[in-house]
Protein 1
Amino acid sequence: MSEAKWMSVAQVREQIRNNSAEEVTARYLETIGKSKLNGYVTVSEKAVEQAKEIDSKGHDGPLAGVPIAIKDNISVTGLPNTCSSKILEGYVPPFNAHVIEKLQAAGAVILGKTNMDEFAMGSSTETSCYGPSLNPWDPERVPGGSSGGSAAVVAGGEAPFALGSDTGGSVRCPAAFCGIVGLKPTYGSVSRYGVVAYANSLEQVGPLANNVSDIAVLMDVIGGYDRRDSTSIDRKIAYQEALKDDIKGLKIGVPKEFFGEGIDPAVEKAVWDSIHRCEDLGASWEEVSMPNIPYALASYYIIAMSEASSNLARFDGTRYGYRDKGENWHSMISKTRAEGFGVEAKRRIFLGTYALSAGYHDKYYLKALKVRTLVKQDFDRALSKADVLMAPTMPNPAFKIGEKIEDPLTLYLSDVNTCPINLAGVPSLSVPCGFTDGLPIGLQVIGKPFDEATVLRAAYAFEQNTDHHTRRPPEVA
Amino acid sequence: MVYENPDGVKIGLEIHVQLNKLNTKMFCGCSSKYHDSAPNTHTCPICLGLPGALPVLNKKTVEAAIKVGLALEGEIAEETQFHRKNYFYPDLPKGFQVTQYDYPIVSKGKVVIEGEDGEHTVGIWRAHMEEDPGKLVHIGSIEKSKGVLIDYNRSGMPLIETVTAPDMRTPKEGRRFLDKFRNILEYLDVFDGNLEGAMRVDANVSVYGGTRVEVKNISSHKGVEKALLYEIMRQKNVIRRGGKITQETRHFDEARGVTIGMRTKEEAEDYRYFREPDLMPMKVSDWIPRIKETFPELPDAKRSRFIEQYGITDMHAKSLTSKIMLADFYEGVCKEGTDPKQAATWTADVLLGEFNYRDLVISSYDGSTIGCINDKDHSITNSVRVADMVKLISLFADGKISDRAAVEVVRSILDGEEEKTPLQIIEEKGLFKAEDDLVTKAVSEAIAENEAAVQDYLGGAEKSLNFLVGQVMKKTKGTADAKTAREMLVKELKG
């Protein structure tokens, strides 16, 4: 069985050529069947059938027969789309997200939908109505979030790669915690059509994979303009072409604000070692100052919660999903929302509603927008001097299940290095850069808007010259 | 003469107009022609607000809004954007309405109406774009309904909400404003006012400079006068009895013609507006020149042109331009060589008079035929062809038929004979004016056969002439012109 695990896309394609898509899919399904990671919330009944069809048609798309896992907030026709929330119980979307259309056209086989924090609100998958997914490196620890299920199944060998979404770190955090690669693309480079919104102005769909090359393969399929998403931008980016093992002359900016209070010394060391490794490879680095970063977290949470409070208003039991009984419509929707949403979703709806309310709107929401502008300017400035920025993805390695969930503020603080990127809309990738006590550490490579090419090149060269990404988690007993 | 406004009445209106001629909805590709369709058949993930669906702006909405802004002589914003207005209601599938907030596309416009004391300017504060929610359908009456059904066909229809300054002083001015506004919108070809729910009005009313009361749910431009009359009377009476007007929202019950206080809210609604992150701000100032190039002639301009070009009276011009389809029909008739003054009389006085008498409202004009529907029963429709009107007027002008006969032809057309040509109707009904020799013969016969009456007349009894005229008419089966018959008789008898 182990040969089905941790294969790159190229290896998977090789296996499909030698055997069949059906066989490869069946082997992944077998691994999924034995899994204890709670990574999938829905396993597709149609995966084998789809793989057979690919075989019989001789599909020659770039992902012909390659299985993939999809986060449970990305609509796939016919598969439940619950966002790991009770309130979407029974909802099956009648349409595909844009990225799913692209994947299917490329020949990908959808294995199933992966666990996440409820409506992508969290950094651990502990807010999921299905319970947390487990970190393959240590099943007592969280896989990170919110795309924790996607990261766990890739790191656990249950899918060669996966799609997640990143609103404030939701792809990069679990990638870092699970020792894999995750990309948050530039805002506007991947269509959000069909992705259930948590905070529209911040989020992007992003890939999670075992290596940088597979990220590029996936981006070449899912990226690009879509007229159905008005925030989509028509910019052609050649992702795979960027994969060159050459970073001579690359200028790296190191923002000291990303190494702030509370950072784990082992993380700090691993990141600096990585920067020095890049220097050995011909890159240069200098410290850059981003003075508004300390305000980013507060700004991020106010904006995200404000948008969320509005986005989640549609879940009222009237048309689809979970519905409670009430003597009239008002009591029905009150009970439905009280029962259907989990604690964290409700907390964020409350806080977002508060931040947008008359009398507080200017004090919180407007101020947060102003801070957002300042943060963007910090990135503009820093990236005018450097080609990429490098920093720790997460200030700590994966924490224990239950360790932080009762203390939302501490949990929110773990997004301190990831959420500024979403405020600025720039691309950022997390790549494995070391270990501490057997737990992976992620290096964050941040680029200029639409300059994923440089980000991928830097990460690829680093990966080619290090072996962190080759380490595999122990078999989960 | 200056209107004193003795009760200090101030009326401001908020008018929701459905842009129902844009083919598709505001943010999706669903057809906007849902009015005759089964419920929930014009829907998609976007207008149903399914999770993950995103709006894509129908640019025609913005073009229409700019047209309206230009027609209202307003300022068009350089840049415009959409906001979310958050509230819960079952007809609102997303839990928010996409609308505009602090950057409305149109501001500071005006409309000149015929006021109580001549031309009167009503200020326009703003006009903005927003989406229509769905519609609740009660099973039976609202009070007794066992359940509520929701029809989302209307959901996502483009609307323009226009807010006027409180510049109207009487209910009549309120109605005149709406008539003019509606007329302008029809000239812009963005709106068909005959469709259900096409125009919805809320009114803000105050008396003696006091607290204003909002009256909601005025569903027709005819209802507005009734609602305002009632509300002004109510407020004056509250004050007369020593009471106080409280700021509140009242509901207009059209059937009973009264306004009813709705449950007073403990707090003002807080809609938590914020910019719609799924739609980008738009720079629209450079759209304006292109829109101006194809800008239609508006009612006031057309009215002046008709007076000048066709030499018709202002009364006729006003009446003919009160509906763009009627104005087009009139010009269609003129183009065929009909005398414009005759055409004005027959269109504005006769045809429109007959329409009004039958509760018919004009609903279409396709360049050759004007169509209308019964305002009370939309299943009743009628139409009149330009060609038939031209022929009818020419028959009358050539003296082939009397004016009475011509009116009868119009009536026949409207009473179910619209398929027939005027000539067919005239022949079938024998409405041709009698030939002169036929009348001459009848005159001779009448004189020969009624000697006593002839003698009486010649003896000075004028009344006897009437009898003889009657005899001529009888012999010609009414086709003779009575005046001509009388003249011929007098000439024959008195030489």
Protein 2
Amino acid sequence: MTAPILMARGLVQTYPGRPTGFWSRQTIRAVDEVDLDVSEGEILAIVGESGSGKTSVARLLLNLRMPSSGTIAYRGVDLRRADKRAYRREVQAVFQDPASSLNPRMRVATALSHVAVRHGLASGADIARLIARHLRAVGLDPPENYMLRFPHQLSGGQQQRVAIARAMMLDPRVIIADEPLSSLDISVQTQLLELMKELKEKANVGFVLISHDLNAVEAIADRVVVMYRGRIVEAGRNVLAKPRHPYTRALVDARLIPDPKLARCKQRIILDGDALSSTIVGGCRFRNRCPLAVSVCAAEDPPLRPVDRDGSLAACHLVEPVANPFA
Amino acid sequence: MTGRGAAKAAPLLDVRGLKVHFSVGNTVVRAVDGVDIRVERGECVGIVGESGSGKSTLMRAVTGLLPNVAVTELSGEILFKGSDLRTLSGRDMRRMRGEDGFSMVFQDPLGYLNPTMRIGRQVAEALPPNLSRAEAKRRMYELLREAGLPDPEFVAKRYPHELSGGMRQRVAIAIALSASPALLVADEPTTALDATVQLQVLDTLKKLYRERRMALIIITHDLGLVAELCDRVYVMCRGRVVETADTVTLFDAPTNAYTARLIALSRRDGRAAGTEALA
């Protein structure tokens, strides 16, 4: 296991919320004291409901926004001092809706050649060769069939492949993918997951995969981080197989089971409301929806602490911490 | 369960040999190509397929919501309570969308809720016009509560953008229920929602169709949703129904290769499914 290439410490992102008086406004802490490490060749998944802050984290990691406080270090250098152009090159993005992240008036080849020219990757006839190679690498083969098409002439899965090819052209070390699967059919999802796995293994690319689809995440993630209202509530390698935090358990429980016999006899915890429906001050922020909440949950905000020798972390008063996780 | 006497023989909805073809440029797209579907009263039926399988077009044709601009062929019979919807006048069709008729819920409620109107008025608007103001208000609150919104007085005063996705979908369900439909068609009702909220809405739909003895058609790409909810399933691929069975049989022993692949994929069973594209 290599040292993390991307390290975030104490990330906080606040947004102005609704007014509370004539002069005052609520402050929404969309991301609240988040620490994250991303290594090369690792798929780190961030899961959570809408409003949990996962997309805000992605935007911070992509340097599309400056955090309200906290630091991001890339290869050990604080991003505020780092070479932004190198960072842009090595940390790439793939977004949810491929149709809107591709210029509708540009053919695939044109869009990709812009990247090549802007970053001086190739010139002249080499550009076409470079583009062809990358299209083939993401499974658009033969590339000639796709290069002259406009985005609307491609299916959703093909569009997403073009977006991945564009990201891969710069030979990035990390790709931040914000819900790259959610608008796609399940067979296409499976293919893209395979592609990500392949890129991870062959090109040693690290992925930050943001998703609400636990089944997809479970299939490929090396490590999973569960977020709730801006906080990391659980993190580790076996989070989905062995959830400890009641919120993670509820999320795992909420997966629909494609088997009628199992689905209908399963006893589930159905959470009330959603992550955004109320604001709570002090204590654990999950307590109003938590089926297990006790009095200490209202009094103290649980810290994220080691709960297993495999390095899993959880932020819940009811999960026993391990005293010396590395013993 | 199916109703009285003679009505027992005839299903609530009986679609026979429905074809919907569009012209796109010079080619004809056979979006729906000879589909038969039967739904009994009080039954929950799933229509599954990937994007482009024709599942939404099918139900849009049935509910009369098809834009007729590019439609080159629309044939077959759509019998609802015995009368062919395709031959009805605009006025009779409107009646079909009322009491004991059918109504719809779509994927994105924000797209069809009026952004400038408070929720309460939008729900009340769908109620029969002859009700008194007080009675309409009472029914409106009742509908919102039935759709799983525990605080209807609060919700009724909001605008659509002030509600979460799950709440908006519940408002859409309340509006759909206002005419006490015999059939509710839900097109990807939970796709845009979080897993936890999806489960809540699922629970509400389950309760509603049992309590109201309403027939429910769920159009979805998600086999999990079908497994949880439906009595019977139609699997669509490229405009045709490739398999139909009751839910348990379909999942236990799919007879069609496409269905089997779809089930394996949804269980993330990579080896059984292979990785090449389906359709």
